[in-house]
Specification:
There is one protein chain. The protein has eleven helices and twelve strands. By secondary structure, it is of the alpha+beta class. The protein has two domains: 3-24 and 43-176, Ribosomal Protein S5, domain 2, CATH 3.30.230; 198-370, GHMP kinase, C-terminal domain (Alpha-Beta Plaits, 2-Layer Sandwich), CATH 3.30.70. A five-stranded mixed beta sheet has the order 1-3-6-4-5. It has a four-stranded antiparallel beta sheet with strand order 10-11-9-12. A three-stranded antiparallel beta sheet has the order 2-7-8, sandwiched between helices. The structure holds alpha-D-galactopyranose. Alpha-D-galactopyranose is lined by residues 26, 30-31, 33-34, 120, 162-163, 165-166, 330-331.
């Protein structure tokens, strides 16, 4: 059955428009996007389909084969409802800020990404919603605007203090390419992956987190406070992007040690992103792998967003011959890891590493995607 027919069944009518947007795996550059940094995400084949059909009245309703019906809710004023309708309501609120009045409608959602799996199901859902509403109303918005709307919706209305990485790669990423995205300037470059020899394997640990649960926002606050304290020591620092290793040395003993650790992760991680891009362009696969390893150690020890199941999974995967590097990907606190390995190692990874990596909640890890 085609995507259209599935939606017709789900909505009880033919959709006026439908659209897809992918999830992503971030290769390197973790927890740096909200510090004006540079990131290197890759879009996945998996993602979210959204369909829309008009309905009388000024309300929004949602249908999903997984979550069931939600709403109807008034389109305005925006209200942070406690189910998956909050995302389209937020996107519609972001459109309203730009003077677009979205009529009453029903939204159908079908996705292939795990929720809370560290592969950006929410950004994929929001960008797909922006594309579907754009197509329905004939707004003619470009991809960067879809990303900006999705970001505004998630940050201001859903209330997650996220950066701009996930929405940008969902809207602008090219399959089989890493998107080098400079979150300060907005510049993007697609860099091809060496898919003839290297596989980027995304392994879902099966452990979950919700960015709305507050731990993610707490890290954003701590590290933003670090940026403020460092800026008080040296003028010219607008964000952690501007901090140098010398600034960190000068700050030792003068700013809170936990905040200093958070800042150190960001400064080191940004150097790793540059090194990774150079290694990728030079075809130095081993160097790319060791940079992922170093990123994981930093996320575990300095940013403290790893968990025992994620560490165990990374270690088991790393022990497979042909695996050149591995690390948690996305926000952390559960979710997925990304493995950089020789193509021929993919099978052994799945067969030998995953069964050993028993996660604490008893859920078996699984390969989610191979790029
Ligand atoms: C989440 C956020 C992103 C980014 C990552 C961590 O996915 O939505 O903006 O901050 O965490 O790199």
């Amino acid at each position: 059955m085609s995507e259209s027919d599935e939606f017709e069944r789900l909505l009880g009518q033919r959709p006026a428009a439908r659209a897809f947007a992918p999830g992503r795996v971030n290769l390197i550059g973790e927890h740096v996007d909200y510090h004006d940094g540079v990131v290197l995400p890759v879009p996945l084949d998996q993602g979210t389909w959204v369909a829309v059909a008009p309905e009388p009245g000024r309300t929004l309703r949602c249908e999903s084969p997984v979550f069931g019906p939600a709403g109807p809710y008034p389109l305005e004023p925006f209200s942070r409802v406690d189910d998956y309708a909050v995302y389209p309501l937020a996107l519609i609120a972001a459109l309203r800020e730009r003077g677009v009045d979205v009529p009453g409608c029903v939204i159908g959602v079908r996705g292939t990404l795990p929720i809370g799996g560290g592969v950006s199901s929410s950004a994929s859902y929001l960008v797909a919603t922006a594309r579907a509403i754009d197509a329905w109303l004939g707004l003619g918005l470009d991809a960067a605007t879809h990303a900006a709307l999705a970001y505004r919706a998630e940050r201001e209305f859903v209330g997650v203090a996220c950066g701009t990485m996930d929405q940008t790669v969902a809207a602008l990423g090219r399959p089989g390419h890493a998107l080098r995205f400079d979150c300060r300037t907005g510049a993007t470059t697609s860099i091809p992956l060496p898919r003839d020899r290297i596989a980027v394997v995304v392994v879902d640990s099966g452990t979950r987190r919700d960015l709305r649960d507050g731990r993610f926002n707490a890290r954003v606050q701590e590290s933003t406070a670090a940026a403020r304290e460092l800026a008080a020591l040296r003028p010219g620092i607008r964000a952690l992007r501007d901090v140098t290793p010398a600034d960190l040395e000068a700050a030792a003993g003068r700013i809170d040690p936990v905040r200093l650790r958070r800042a150190r992760h960001v400064v080191d991680e940004l150097a790793r992103v540059d090194a990774f891009v150079d290694a990728l362009r030079a075809g130095d696969d081993a160097r790319c792998g060791s940079l992922l390893d170093a990123s994981h150690a930093s996320l575990r020890d300095l940013y403290e967003v790893s968990t025992e199941p994620l560490d165990a999974l990374v270690a088991e995967c790393r022990a497979i011959p042909g695996v050149l590097g591995a690390r948690l990907t996305g926000a952390g606190f559960g979710g997925s890891i990304v493995v950089w390995c020789r193509r021929e190692a993919t099978h052994a990874l799945e067969r030998d590493a995953l069964p050993k990596a028993h996660v604490s909640n008893g859920v078996q890890p699984r390969v989610l995607a191979v790029v």
